[in-house]
Design goal:
This protein is α+β, with helices and mostly antiparallel strands. The chain is about 45% helix and about 15% strand. The protein is rod-shaped and about 160 Å long. This is histidine kinase.
Length: about 500
């Protein structure tokens, strides 16, 4: 069956390319937001400038009307003057004069006034938004305003302020009200805004290209030590993890990465060396009883008539039991190495386990050993009862093999911990070997350990079991003999049914 090809992703795989695209996308979003804000602000400010620039022509036009003069049609700003009681415009220009002269005025007429408008400053105007209808009958001038909506500034004039000659010249009645409309064209604000938009667009595109390029090459340069680390670690083999990566002197994250990788490689190297030593020691330990067993059987087979068969069988059985115990210890260590720390289970009463072990403890054949216990009550811990039974048995068996006449087990509750001590009155262990006794296949007194059945794995198994139950096992100083101390987290007692 053909294996389906993996789907190709459009997103690039290289970190430097992805980082450059991500930074460029973020920068684009920020630039778009800034550009939109600038667009609105520039348009608002330019519109306000156009309104401010329309004030002066509006007031100048109003002053001409107060003098009775008809303004010129030539104006840079469209305007229209309307009056009450008159359907046509009094005057118009700047583009508003393209409408037919006889047609009604385009912009609205004011209400009729009975007296002049008086303000603190002497003049006033209003701003409105007006839609100019499409009613041209002639071609439009330079401003095509029909159908558009514009801002319009307006100011009112009472015809009573004018002389009779001026009112007649303007063609309005003496009691009429004139309104001057001046249209604020959006061309200038729009042109300014469009120019700013164009500049922002070009600057934004150039900025995005520069940001992307700088990010790409910066990340590329920053990742060179990572590539060097990758090349160095690629040469590491399981059988020879002695290669180390160069640690940069910059002190940044790459330095921490290189230091961590070197620490990991060192642990792998130590683990590989420990595994090699373990395999060599296991082979040596297995070879010794196998050699003894094979030699005994070969001699018995070669000289059957002179062989003491009960002795030969006893020797074979003893070496077989030794092989069996060694194989069980090796399998247990292998399971402990592959197993995660034990989750909370139980609770298990160590006091009860110590009492059961004391009842079943066998005496060594060469000397009597007194086994005593000292407890203050139940001592509950989390874990598996079988594991704790094996742990205690290994500690007690080790103490019994080395004790002169007495082994004492003490169990105490202290500071939410259970402290168990196994103390013998033997020769003890030198301080410099306090940790070596927990190494696998280590025998400080090799001949005596072999005679008394030790495999060199009891204490390592006990410590591994302690660690798997979140505890510690150490050899503490003692005036006489050896004292092993086990600390385990306290567990609440089981709920009573």
């Amino acid at each position: 069956m053909n294996t389906a090809e993996p789907r190709r992703r459009w997103w690039p795989r290289a970190v430097r390319t992805r980082t450059a695209l991500a930074v460029a996308s973020t920068a684009a979003a920020i630039l778009v937001a800034i550009g939109w804000w600038l667009h609105r602000d520039v348009h608002r400010q330019s519109t306000q400038i156009a309104l401010d620039q329309t004030e002066a022509p509006l007031l100048a036009l109003a002053d001409q009307l107060r003098e009775g003069k008809i303004p010129s049609r030539r104006s840079a700003i469209p305007y229209e003057v309307v009056a009450t009681g008159r359907s046509t415009a009094v005057a118009s220009g700047g583009g508003m004069d393209v409408f037919a002269p006889a047609s009604p005025h385009v912009l609205p007429a004011p209400p009729r006034l009975s007296e002049p408008l008086v303000t603190d400053s002497g003049w006033s105007y209003e701003q409105r938004t007006v839609r100019i209808p499409e009613r041209r009958t002639e071609p439009a001038g330079r401003f095509d305003m029909g159908g558009g909506t514009y801002a319009v500034l307006s100011t009112d004039i009472w015809a009573g302020e004018l002389s009779s000659t001026g009112a007649a010249n303007l063609g309005v009645s003496p009691d009429a009200t004139l309104r001057v409309h001046m249209v604020v064209l959006p061309h200038t604000p729009n042109a300014i805004t469009d120019s700013v938009n164009s500049l922002l667009l070009r600057a934004g595109l150039v900025s995005l290209v520069l940001i992307s390029a700088v990010t790409y090459f910066t990340v590329r340069i920053a990742l060179r030590p990572v590539e060097a680390i990758r090349v160095a670690t690629a040469s590491v083999t399981p059988g020879d993890p002695r290669e180390r990566v160069s640690v940069p002197a910059t002190g940044h994250e790459i330095t921490a990465l290189a230091t961590t990788i070197n620490s990991t490689l060192q642990r792998l190297d130590d683990a590989a060396a420990q595994q090699r030593r373990f395999i060599a020691d296991a082979a040596h330990e297995l070879r010794s009883p196998l050699t003894t067993l094979l030699t005994s059987l070969e001699v018995a087979l070669a000289y059957p008539e002179r062989t003491d068969w009960p002795t030969a069988v006893t020797t074979a059985a003893r070496q077989t039991r030794r092989l069996q115990a060694l194989a069980e210890d090796l399998l247990l260590l292998a399971r402990l190495d592959a197993r995660a720390p034990t989750a909370d289970r139980g609770p298990v009463d160590l006091t009860a386990l110590v009492s059961q072990l004391a009842e079943r403890q066998e005496q060594p054949p060469d000397r009597p050993v007194t086994f005593t216990t000292d407890t203050t009550g139940p001592a509950y811990v989390h874990g598996r009862p079988d594991d704790y039974e094996r742990l205690l048995r290994n500690l007690v068996d080790n103490a019994t093999r080395h004790a002169a006449s007495r082994v004492q087990v003490t169990v105490r509750n202290q500071d939410q911990q259970i402290i168990l001590s196994v103390h013998d009155d033997g020769l003890g262990v030198p301080a410099e070997n306090a940790e070596r006794v927990f190494e696998r296949f280590v025998r400080l007194d090799d001949a005596r350990s072999r005679d008394r059945g030790g495999t060199g794995l009891g204490l390592p198994i006990a410590r591994e079991l302690a660690h798997h139950h979140r505890g510690t096992l150490v050899l503490v100083p003692s005036d006489t003999g050896a004292c092993f101390r086990l600390r385990l987290p306290h567990a609440p007692p089981p709920a009573k049914e």
